[in-house]
Specification:
Its EC number is 2.7.13.3. The chain is an alpha+beta fold. It is built from eight helices and seven strands, in the order H-H-H-E-H-E-E-H-E-E-H-H-E-E-H.
């Protein structure tokens, strides 16, 4: 019993440290959140006053991303909210890549309430842009697919970019190299999933040179409160 108590204490400490690390990474480029929010509001007002709808859309997306990044009150959020974060991120990137970035969602409506660790999919989309879209001049399609099977929620972020060589893929899996993104990395996502749901769950990276890359996330299918209410009503 004493050994188990110690294990639980160590697990809780590790979870808090990892959460803090995630929070610090989200905050590291931040000067002052209120200052940034107020500045973005001013820019948005100016854009709307000058009928610059595209600029206003980008500013609103960026403001939403900032609010989402600095708020860590909830460790688990509905898939719907995570996809809102992803859409806002894609909106900011569309300005840079325009028609070269083709984003697609294949997520059934009944799965939108599924609970997932916050900032699980957005970093994967960010990595797809860095590895698949940036190195080439051709358009790149990035997709998010969600399915449920046998009580498990399967999420997949895939692209049709240049892919990765087997050697580089092994180094990436073993942690010898880090992803290009400046935000939350694959290791951080894996560790947060393990701390939340246990060791059997996590992410897998699949890629072949010339055929694209896909990252698979497998976690327990945890329905949100709204889903339970609807199910009871039905």
């Amino acid at each position: 019993m004493i050994r188990r108590i110690r294990e639980l204490i160590n697990e809780n400490v590790a979870k808090q440290l990892l959460l803090r690390e995630t929070e610090l990474k989200a905050l590291q480029a931040q000067i002052n959140p209120h200052f940034l929010y107020n500045t973005l509001k001013s820019v948005n007002w100016l854009a709307k006053a000058n009928r610059q709808d595209r600029i206003s859309e980008i500013v609103e997306a960026l403001a939403f991303l900032l609010r989402s990044a600095v708020s860590f009150e909830e460790q688990l959020i509905p898939l719907r909210k995570e996809l809102d974060i992803v859409r806002s991120y894609v909106t900011t990137q569309k300005t840079r890549f325009e028609e070269r970035l083709a984003f697609h969602l294949d997520v059934p409506e009944e799965l939108m309430g599924a609970q997932i660790p916050k900032l699980t999919l957005q970093p994967l989309v960010e990595n797809a842009i860095h590895y698949a879209l940036e190195p080439q001049i051709e358009p790149c399609r990035i997709s998010i697919v969600a399915r449920v099977r046998d009580g498990s929620l399967f999420l997949r972020v895939e692209d049709d970019g240049p892919g990765m060589t087997r050697g580089f893929l092994e180094k990436l899996r073993s942690g010898q190299v880090t992803t290009r993104g400046q935000g939350i990395g694959l290791t951080n996502i894996q560790e947060r999933i393990n701390l939340t749901f246990g060791a059997p769950w996590g992410i897998e990276l699949h890629s072949e040179s010339g055929t694209g890359t896909s990252i698979h996330v497998c976690i327990p299918y945890v329905k949100g409160e709204q889903d339970h209410v609807q199910g009871a009503a039905g």
